[in-house]
Amino acid sequence: MQVSMTVNGQQRTDEVEPRMLLAHHLRDTLGLTATNIGCDSTSCGACTVIVDGLSVKSCTVLALQVEGSQVTTLEGLAGEDGELHPVQAAFQSEHGLQCGFCTSGMVMASVGVLAANPDPTDREVREGLEGNLCRCTGYHNIVRAVLKAAEAGPVAGQVPQSQEVSA
Amino acid sequence: MSILGTRVVRTEDPLFLTRGAVYTDDLTDERLTGALHATFVRSTVAHAKVLSVDTEAAKQAPGVVAVYTAADLTDLPPLAPPFPFVAAEFVRQWLCTDTVRFVGDAIAVVLTEERYQGEDAAEQVVVDLDVLPAVVGTANAAKDETLLFPAAGTNVLAAFGEPAPADFFDGCDVVVEQAVVNQRVAPVPLETRATSAVWGEDGRVTVWCTNQGAQQAKGQIAEWLGLDAALVHLVTPDVGGGFGAKIGADPEYALIAHLAKLSGRPVRWTESRSENLTTMLHGRGQDQIVKIGGSRDGKVLAYSLVTDQDGGAYPRIGVVLPTLTMLMTPGTYAFPKVHAQARVLATNTTSIGAYRGAGRPEATAAVERALDMFAAEIGMDAVEVRRINLVPKFDEPHSTPTGATYDSGDYVAALDKALEASGYAELRAEQKLRRERGDIRQLGIGVSTYVEITGADNGAGTGEEAELEVHADGTATVLTGTSPHGQGHATTWAMLASDQLGIPVEKITVLHGDTDRIPKGGGTMGSRSLQQGGAAVHQAAVELVEIAKKRAAERLEANPDDLVVDLGTASLTVKGTPGVSVSFAELAAEEALLVQTTFTAAAATFPFGAHVVVVETDVESGKATVIRIVTVDDAGTIINPLLAEGQRHGGIAQGVAQALLEEVLYDSDGNPQTSTLADYPFISATELPSFELVDMATPTPMNPLGAKGIGEAGTIGSTPAVQSAVIDSVAHLGVRHVDMPATSMRVWKAVQAAQSASQTQNGSTN
Predict the structure, then answer these.
(1) Quick one: which of B443, B304, B452 has its CA closest to B724?
(2) Across the interface, do A39 and B273 touch by the CB < 8 Å criterion?
(3) Contact B359, B324 (CB under 8 A)
(4) Residue B68 contacts residue B122 (beta carbons within 8 Å)
(5) What contacts B766, CB < 8 A, 6 or more positions away?
(6) Do B26 and A133 touch (CB under 8 A)?
(7) Are residues A91 and B13, on separate chains, in Cβ contact within 8 Å?
């Protein structure tokens, strides 16, 4: 079947199997491999992307379900001039990533957390990221990174396509 | 000022944060164009005779190119046990024809054009099994009633040490004994196992796979396939975490390479998470008996640790883990008498391998538990008992009764720092208050001290390679035999070169993991990388400066001894004549400026530390919440504090996870009960506080950097501290021991049992 969506600002129309997951569509059809798949039970959040302003786990959405939607992946988060999004910049400065496998989903989920709550506490960040698992960092520096990104103001909860984002 | 010791942010990160790292499943190498997808058909039964495997229907399924069973693998040499001391009968098959020995044992492989077609087709493979009784748990295995390998005549894969002498505890006023479970856990790197393989026209196979050391993985694959090692080219892409479970290669990787040959097409395999949780190596899995004796004034006189290690269905690294546990049995303590003994048992479960700490956390958890119980028995504060028994500060190597030689240490200072930073006295006062008030939320305080072994000989020797080349454009390249998968070697190794040459970190490229470019290397495991691979980079840089000085001396007509490195300009200048200089880049333009070197560490190093953990436990529900974690982790000289702290953070979290939450479970028939991340309670951000890290650095003389390992320390220290804190939170209710993971149910049951025991006692005296 055919599915059309806007991915990182670009209109895409592709043939997919009806059962194709959005995560596989992004990775295998569109070649956007920053989005990772870490489980098969919607538990780890490595595949988190932003669809029409909502951070969602793309392993639990069929590609067909996002027909006509705006999708942002990690590849689409930095500015056109390459300037890092505040969340990306904070993950680097606070050492919020190690092996990097959870990072794409963690960054996208963090944007969602900050969209819903631009000035979160340590506890609120932890609760907001409960559905995103990391084995390397013990979450310590991820939480610090999100708090640091929040200092950039509302832009930290926005994606470049200027969609409205909520958690 | 040297760049060493400063918080340099990672040079890896901009790509990781914008394009994403490139893991094995992300590869777009043109040689993999048209690759087939492999899907394993695995046993759904823990122990059974294989009667038949019918692949006919699967072969007709859409997209199927081939279905392979053992009958198709006659060209492959049989697999052998991984260690010479394990009897040859304990052997696995590439694909099972005779017996399946755990849920997940491989029976067939389906190759399909597309990913989704594989799962459909695998379901069409009909396997007829005759179910046998399953052996679950070391106690069942030890009965030898059902044998996994009848030809071996026993389930004992290996045995180490002798029983303690009958008079071992003679002279002790108090002896405490306790069965302790160091439960099986799953490493769960976020990236599951994955590999790709393609054969070239030159008869060589290129294998990409996620691993912790390309050279070791290559050697294993070549050996398993019966190939000359020169015919295997192994490439390690970015790796999404390892934690010990990706050391070396797994037979699946070699099999996929072989199937690429049989099918004449490139083949890719990426396991699902449920496949990962049931078939990737698990960690820990020890049933221990700790016994400790001493005098009522707190002096321990004798300590014994007897371990039954669950080996799982087939012997892997788990077989040697208890030897590390035995080596580290006395930990930080100067016990006069120490006894350690272990055996490894085969069970119808997933094989056990290395997991962050690998044998040492088990030793630390046991001895810390023993000390706590001894302290409770004699009615002394557990910290005081530790203080009485700790090995005093030493600068000369300290030898232990179990044969370890600790390089340098000051355990008392580490303990004092941790206690001070935590406000230990105030915490005890707060605890007392809550106990007096009978609060529902009680405070528990757990203290651990630990010492562990890092950079131990892992079979590859303690040597490590480095190559450093400066280029004419002022950049430099480092080749390393270590294998980062999150540790940030690209940044730290660049710092080590920059420290000597003055070339900025961002102009230094660090390469690893390609066996054609880097034929030798020991990989990254056992917290060895900085003290061996990093030290090799440092040595290469020092040697390169010496070569450059000789060449610069000719060019500048100066004495080499008068030349000094100007770090600001990455050049050599004549002492006292700053205008006369030549840069490393200019020298490289004349003639290649390159050093290859091997650094061999004098011996292993022994990082140490102390952790204080505070939990709040709801005594009505048994739920314990960790509210503070204060750690002193002394790993000698720190090169990049930002990254070293990251290692501590991750380690601490994995220790908390084991102590409080995580456990791989099987039912009595050997069916996995935790085969997805919905069932396996992987620790999340909400279950952890932010960590309070305290600095302490006692350099080691074993390498010029003074660095010890930091990768596993956090786990080793935090696991017993958390367990101890939970028990301490309900100790006033009569609880002496709770096994890990200290879940709400376990704690609640322990409280109920202690209270009913005390009521019975009261009843009998009335």
Answers:
(1) B443
(2) yes
(3) yes
(4) no
(5) none
(6) no
(7) yes
Residue environment code for A49-80, b if the CB has 16+ CB neighbours within 10 A, otherwise e: bbbbbebbbbbebbbbebeebbbbbbbbbbee
For B564, phi then psi, to 5°, come to -130, 155
Residue whose C-alpha is closest to residue B366's, from B182, B172, B202, B578: B182
A-B CB pairs within 8 A amount to 184
Residue B765 has pLDDT above 50, yes or no: no
Q: Residues near B61 by Cβ (< 8 Å), separated by ≥ 6? A: B112, B117, B120, B121, B124
**For position B451, what pLDDT does the model report?**
98
| Nearest residue, CB atoms, B646 vs list A39, A103, A137 | A137
pLDDT tens-digit map of B604-623:
999 999 999 999 999 999 99
Task: Report how far apart, in Å, the C-alpha atoms of B752 and of each of B177, B377, B440, B472, B736 are.
Answer: 22, 20, 15, 74, 13
Name the pLDDT band for B579 (thresholds 50, 70, 90).
confident
Pick A34's closest partner by Cβ from B13, B19, B676.
B19
Name the B residues in 57-116 with CB < 8 Å from any A CB.
Answer: 115-116
CA distance A74 to chain B (A): 6
Give the dihedral of Cα atoms B545, B547, B549, B552; nearest 10 deg: -130
**List of chain B residues whose C-beta atoms are within 8 Å of the C-beta of residue A95:** 9-10, 642-643, 645-646
**Would you report the helix, strand and coil content of chain B in percent, each value rounded to 5?**
35, 25, 40
Q: Chain B 661-720, CB below 8 Å of chain A: which residues?
A: 676-678, 682, 684-686, 688, 690-691, 714
Q: In 10 A of CB B623, how many CB atoms? A: 18
pLDDT band at A161 (very low <50, low <70, confident <90, very high): low
Give the Cα separation of B259 and B273 in Å (integer): 23
In this structure, the strands spanning A70-72 and A2-7 are parallel
CA atoms within 13 A on the CB side of B544: 38
Contact A44 B677 (CB under 8 A): yes
Q: Is there a contact between A41 and B676 if contact means CB atoms under 8 Å apart?
A: yes
Q: Kindly report, residue by residue over B193-243, the tens digit of the pLDDT.
A: 999 999 999 999 999 999 999 999 999 999 999 999 999 999 999 999 999
Residue of B nearest to A99 (CA): B486
Residue of chain B whose alpha carbon sits nearest to that of A76:
B18
Contacts of B650 in chain A (CB under 8 A): 98, 135-138
Confidence of residue B336 (pLDDT cuts 50, 70, 90): very high
* Residues of A in Cβ contact (< 8 Å) with B12: 100
Residue B623 to residue B751: CA distance in whole angstroms: 12
